[in-house]
């Protein structure tokens, strides 16, 4: 028999990454994006799809909703939102884990929410 | 669909989570998502190259045959600041990398099975069996409310582990679909509590 | 001015090129279907034995983070199974420069993190044709380096360079701990190349994986034969068990030292098969845009000669030099074809050699492999051919040149221990 998965990566280029062990959080399909304060000047600056995303995300939208709503392929949305984040134009909402909720707390909250749904 | 008195706009402080609805073609994934969603379910499409089995290069056409892969998703607000997204897997199960994307960060998955075509959900079950730390349950979508055989016979036919919950549902019925999701959450809670599965 | 390059695929070639371009000030976006953590915790992808020239390209970019921890191997051991279960031929050739195999789960995840920490952009997404169609116009150059994805179908098969239409081997890889050294050569770490005529090959090599040093057992089975037997395997333990049974039956001298091995981890197995293929380098998108294919997207050879990661590293070095040399001119189709042409000038040799090695060895090759047991310089020359397969075309790939070389070696008198006079690079 064998042991459980060996997850420990003994050799990592810590010196280079400054001890960082994980990449920036990926943009998941459900990751929420919003424009903190819509700025007309920014709107004028942006072009094409990035402008459309900027407008759409005045209301909170997920990556999947941006893609489907604007008819922009998912991979393109991920690249463009990533650009907009770096430029400080849009904000990424934290994941439940990043928001500080342990998994069982989140699950309990989801369960309560589901049980409150009235058909 | 779930109808809410309030607007379905999400709050500026909202966070989100996700569950996946998988299964074979025609198992009722879209119907299931529709039953729970508070928004009109959305279809997202992507263009793929069609894998030419046997790679025919004799035809000198530069154009590759393309195929469109679609996935449906819906959303339901669980409280003022928490949105749950439901994603249905694409019907063509050869695009596994799309499944990998769908399940990244998901709380868990419901594998929908059509009792008349059980084998159609085998690829989905096999897929989730090989994803570490991803709770999944199997729901038999009984369109007419009748299961032609005993549920333990189905378990044997699907060859799933005894601890994987197996239940029946009606994907058209909101209460039934929501109940199925609560069963998935309860199962996930048990797994996170039980150090054996932690 | 900073030119924008999009690289799809986070393997040996894509990441190596991404680092090279980033170091030269290019704005590089890398798209990967998996996160670094997913790669690290996932399944092994290759055997990735890399020889001196390919490792040098990594050193040139300062990317050899695992060189001190990975076990080096210094030769190629060759064994030919005889009909009686004994070895008809058995020798080891010395490599001029040490070789290493670093589990790509470790290397690619690490390289991806470093790339991002140094300012490269990483987008986690399984790229589709729809994505590329809209993304390519936003970049000065788009390179597809995801050899295992469906995007390879954007690149047409080049029938004139692809002699096979179907897979030539069934592949089965197991990463193990606890393998002992071959008793007859305890001090020379090697890749062991065991050839069982009509059945297939077993390669054994030391490597570094996520949990530390290990060994890789890699069976190549001729389709329809007794090593083409992995269809029913569902569990890594079953694959290890079957691997050991087959070793006992076909290569008992290797089984002896493998009695106590165990899997390194649950991701430490791989099975599959694919048809070797060469494709045209320019992919055309529905809107008319073009993308450049690299490494195994355009040249996918059978792993029987262990050239995949070596060719990928060399391709990345060639593409990097071509992109830098091109300056600010547009990366048009001519550039793409010319750049691939530079790679093909090299990779045609490993391609032809690899395709030949999939066939039963012709008489002159058997003669050379036999003579290598007597003349060390032949064994050494064979070993160093894995580092640069172009050399095989001066002696190994042609009956007349083989005869001339044998005469030359024998005519020089006593079996020599010195290296061959042939150029290595």
Helix count, DSSP H or I runs of 4 or more residues of chain C: 12
Q: What is the CATH top level name of the largest domain in chain C?
A: Alpha Beta
* Total DSSP helices of chain A: 6
Number of separate structural domains of chain C? 3
- Give the helix/strand class of chain A: mainly alpha
Helix/strand order of chain C: EHEHEHEEHEHEEEEEHHEEEEEEHHHHH
Helix coverage percent of chain C: 25-40%
What characteristic shape of chain C results from the CA principal axes? globular
- Our measurement of the CA-to-CA distance between the termini of chain C, rounded to an integer number of angstroms, reads 35 Å
Number of strands of chain C: 17
Task: Give the strand tally of chain A.
Answer: 3
Chain-averaged pLDDT of chain A: 83
What's the alpha carbon Rg of chain A, rounded to whole Å? 19 Å
Name the biggest interface: A-B, 39 and 46 residues
* Element string of chain A (H = helix, E = strand): HEHHEHHEH
Question: Based on the structure given, which CATH architecture of the largest domain in chain C is correct?
Answer: 3-Layer(bba) Sandwich
Averaged pLDDT of chain C:
94
Characterization of the model:
The complex is a heterotrimer of chains A (119), B (198) and C (425). Chain A starts with 13 loop residues before the first helix and ends with a helix. In chain A, strands 2-1-3 form a 3-stranded antiparallel sheet. Chain A contains 6 helices and 3 strands; from the N terminus they run αβααβααβα. In chain A, 40% of the residues are buried. Helices cover 45% and strands 6% of the residues of chain A. Chain A has helices at 14-17, 40-45, 48-56, 63-70, 74-86, 103-115, and strands at residues 32-34, 61-62, 91-92. Chain B has a single domain (15-50, 70-193), classed as Rossmann fold (3-Layer(aba) Sandwich). Chain B has a 7-stranded mixed sheet with strand order 2-3-4-1-5-6-7, with helices on both faces. In chain C, strands 3, 4, 5, 8, 9, 10, 11, 12 and 13 form a 9-stranded mixed sheet that branches. In chain C, strands 6-2-1-7-16-15 form a 6-stranded mixed sheet. In chain C, strand 4 and strand 5 form a beta hairpin. In chain C, helix 1 runs parallel beside helix 4, helix 3 packs across helix 8 and helix 8 (308-325) runs antiparallel to helix 9. Mean pLDDT of chain C is 94; it is low at 414-425. Classes of the chains: A mainly alpha (119), B alpha/beta (198), C alpha/beta (425). Chains in contact: A-B, A-C, B-C. Chain A binds chain B through residues 5, 26, 28-32, 34, 59-60, 62, 64-65, 67-69, 73-74, 93-96, 99, 103-104, 106-119, and chain B through 2, 9-18, 36, 42-44, 46-47, 73, 75-79, 82-85, 87, 101-102, 104-105, 107, 132, 173-175, 178, 181-182, 185-186, 188-189, 192-193.
